[in-house]
Structures are given as structure tokens and as C-alpha cells.
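Hi Y.,

Following your request, here is the sequence exactly as I used it, all 285 residues.
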Amino acid sequence: MLPTPSFPQPASVEHVDLALRSELLQHCTRTIAETSLQLTPFPHFLVHGFLPQEVYNELICSFPAPEEYEAFGYEKHQAPNGSSNRFRYQFSNRYLAKLPPVKRKLWFTIRSVLGSHDFKQTVFEKLAPGLELRYGAELAGRGDLAGYALPELFRETEGYSIKPHPDTRKKVVTMQFALASDEGQRELGTEFYRRSAAPRNWLRQPYGFEVAKKMPFSPNTVYAFSVLNTVRLKSWHGRTAIPGDFGVRNSILNIWYEQAENGNQELIDESHWFATTAVPALRAA
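Below is the corresponding structure, written out as C-alpha cells. Let me know if you'd prefer a different format.
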């Protein structure tokens, strides 16, 4: 038998809690595999209890300080006073390394799970019907389709909104992990739309659309959908303005892109190392 090729260990691995990574991968892939796929208004799934509860409780107490985020999409996302109402914390090594040691270990581990090969494969296999619609054929190896993860942390405040859009075709799968503190933020979830010619839907926002479904922004929930932007079907989604009495909307957006250049390259290298070097070595041991 030929030896398994060896690749240099990425620097980020030293910050990953390997035991926790293994536990979370098993938990997250199992919950996704066991959930049902919804086909309307486009293929998607919704998972409750995405992380073990004790890990989730620790995570929502470990956010970076607000001043460590950067304004994101500033011209599109402005509060009435002209300031940004959408902020991003990148999951790059440079950003995560600034965190205190305990927070650093946790966020590096969460990033590692979200960008892992096994996690991506589970998500893509669950969304197989949507991926078949996108690529125009029944695909035997759906989990092995190209997909490069870019997970990032977002905080959105009063007035944040985003118009109905299907997502760019550069994206293969879009996932959002709600980091709500309690059920009081349930109504802040992303809205899924259908085109509508009904007069009532041209008299209120979003104009020309009806809300087909709203994802609950409940603690520890995750939804994901296959990005569809074809003549036949589009994955229309968005969010009407967040009211001021619901607090900050914290979430992780995890996007899988078709091209590696759009993903998190540090995470791509790390995932490759785990899949091709670390895991085979552990199995051999």
C-alpha cells in the first residue's frame, strides 16, 4: 500500500481543540443527516440544536468586542444617522488570533468544523435535490461537488434590511447559524420569498414578493439552502428592516463558493490537511 501523502500542518491547527472538533463534527453532521429536507419555496433545511447546548451557551458568551468588527456593505446598510447597521468579524487567522486564549480556541474550533470536508459533504448530500436543479443532472457524488467555505461572524442592528435576492451564482450553498440569546429574537429570521403579481404585494415591502416562509431566529438553529439563480427557479430570500426593540442580531454566515479563490484559503488548507494527512494518520494509529 502506498503511504499517505504528507502535507505541512497549517499554523491554525495548534489553536484547534481536537477533541471538541471531533465531538462537534459528529453532533452537527448527525443533526443535519437526521433533519428533513423542505422543497418549497426552494430546497432547504432547518436544524434545531445544531451544537450541544453547553457549547452553544459558551459560544454566545464569547463574542468579540463590538469595536473589533468592521462595517460591512456600508453604503447598502446604513442607520438613519448614517452609521453602519451591519458589521463583520472575519474568521481569518489574523482576526481570531487577537482573541483571548479561551475564546480563541473555541472560535478556531468552530471555524474548523464549519469548513471541514465531512461537514460540507453532509450539507451537500442533504441538499442534493437543489444541487441537481442547479447543475442540471442527477449527480452521484453530490458531496464531492466543488465547494469552498467562507464562514464569518455578523452583527446587525436596528434598521438592517436586505432586499429579495437569489444570491450570486458564485455561491453554491448558503447557511446561517442563528446566535440568538433567547426566543425573544425569533422574529428576526431570514425570509424566503415567491414572486407575486397580486396587487396587495405591490403595496408593501418587499414589492412584488410574498413571504413564503420565515426561518425562526431561535437559539442554536441553522438553516441552509442550495443557491438557485436560474430562469426556472431562484432562491429568493432577504430580510425586512429589523425593529429597534429586538436587540442585536448575531449570526454566522457560512457560504460555500464554487471557486477556491472566494473561500477562506487558510481554512481550505486546514481542511485539506485534516482530510488527507491527520485523519488517515489517526486511523493508522
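The first helix runs from residue 18 to 34.

Thanks again,
Q.
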